[in-house]
């Protein structure tokens, strides 16, 4: 039984028609001036922010334990519109988080890269026009050894040191 039936979502739909957006808007506006739609487009759909993390001696360490609502095939949240209602510790990736806690985001995250003065990588869907480019470039969680957080006994047994985190 689904608590919230989600509308069918095709990740590619976000990139079908970008004509209403300024070309390369991320180069022309600071993150603080982006519209909600522009902000959402910057998310590459890697799924890495949905990995559980530990703070070990003041350093954020990623695990391979994923949120139970992360779809491993698409690397997208199964309950995106209702995630904050259902998951008490789900983090909103907003400007405050990006500026104050960049270490909770992967090194490849567009928000983090732009804050660091870098450009989007060539595999980013806004560059390629394809939502699948994140997966074909090996930059998403797709195909990685993951475990659902519901199966974890000790998170320290699931620490990972992947170079893109």
3D structure, described in words:
- The protein contains eight helices and five strands, in the order αααββββαααααβ.
- The protein is α+β, with helices and mostly antiparallel strands.
- The protein has one domain (24-158).
- The protein starts with 12 loop residues before the first helix and ends in a 17-residue tail after the last strand.
Strand order of the largest sheet: 1-2-5
**What is the residue-averaged pLDDT?**
92
Strand coverage percent: 5-15%
In total, the number of strands is 5
Shape: globular
Helix and strand composition category: alpha+beta
> What's the number of domains?
1
Give me the strand/helix succession.
HHHEEEEHHHHHE
- The radius of gyration computed from the alpha-carbon positions, rounded to a whole number of angstroms, is 16 Å
Biggest sheet overview:
3 strands, mixed
The number of helical elements comes to 8
Helix fraction bin: 10-25%
pLDDT under 50 segments (min length 5)?
none
What's the N-to-C terminus distance?
Answer: 34 Å
Give the quaternary arrangement of the chains: single chain
